[in-house]
DNA sequence: CAGAATCCGGGTGGATACTG
DNA sequence: CAGTATCCACCCGGATTCTG
């Protein structure tokens, strides 16, 4: 017995809602940049701050917390003086790295064409 | 002669700004869903509307216009009665399809783990 | 060094109603 | 069928200031 149409569609919607929910994390303004930077290895807070310019500390902090909450990034505090905090990709974060790099690569390759397409579209 | 540091960093920032600018289109709420649907072939407006539930017509229209502006989707109007409009991926849109599918696949595979990670993170 | 707290303007996107 | 128009609540993200 197959479930009624309505039920299938509800499941489909719930599934897509979940996917969109997950993708919204990497859809925000800075996650892709930070993930790419961490793809090269462990980094400290101010190091990431410089590498990800012109991000602000507030947004870097928020981005890292979001990524940590989703289990994509690990945060390690060293009780030294001055304090030192290391960020790195978790295995799950690393599993996303290649896709994110592909995305960034695609964006770079197509940037010029897209800028041109926008200009031509806006001309009408 | 290599350019001064400041100049290199400005170029790097400009390059990243461009990439982020391009990625913001697919970072919005509905583009990934719509691109995935169009990945299966040409679709009409109301067809996309149903397939992408619970999107509203307003957001579907806005999403399609954004994708068309960037040259990722083509729009073809048939002067029939009632009117009929076909949407399809352009070659550039198709070049993005595999990455978007990878992204959606990753999101689906990791959704459960991420929900769990969030719950455990929020417990603190 | 590594953040947190506060303020706030602009834009995203939902609901609803209307149109050719 | 394929949209547009209007209104508006929400929240993202920048600037600034403060802290252990």
Automatic annotation (TrEMBL), chains A, B:
Pfam families of this UniProt entry? HxlR (PF01638)
Where the record annotates domain HTH hxlR-type, the positions are 17-115
Residues of the signal sequence? Answer: none
Residue spans crossing the bilayer: none
* UniProt keyword list: DNA-binding, Transcription, Transcription regulation
- Keyword ATP-binding present in the record's keywords: the answer is no
Tell me which SUPFAM superfamilies the record gives: Winged helix' DNA-binding domain
From the Swiss-Prot or TrEMBL record, give the protein name: Winged helix-turn-helix transcriptional regulator
Q: Which species is the source of this protein?
A: Nonomuraea salmonea
């Amino acid at each position: 017995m197959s479930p009624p149409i309505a039920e299938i569609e509800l499941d489909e919607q719930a599934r897509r809602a979940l996917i969109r929910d997950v993708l919204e994390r990497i859809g925000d303004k800075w996650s892709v940049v930070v993930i790419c930077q961490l793809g090269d290895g462990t980094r400290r807070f101010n190091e990431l701050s410089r590498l990800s310019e012109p991000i602000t500390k507030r947004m870097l902090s928020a981005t890292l917390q979001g990524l940590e909450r989703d289990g994509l990034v690990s945060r390690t505090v060293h009780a030294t003086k001055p304090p030192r905090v290391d960020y790195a990709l978790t295995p799950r974060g690393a599993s996303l790295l290649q896709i994110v790099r592909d995305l960034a690569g695609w964006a770079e390759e197509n940037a010029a064409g897209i800028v041109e397409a926008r200009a031509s579209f806006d001309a009408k």
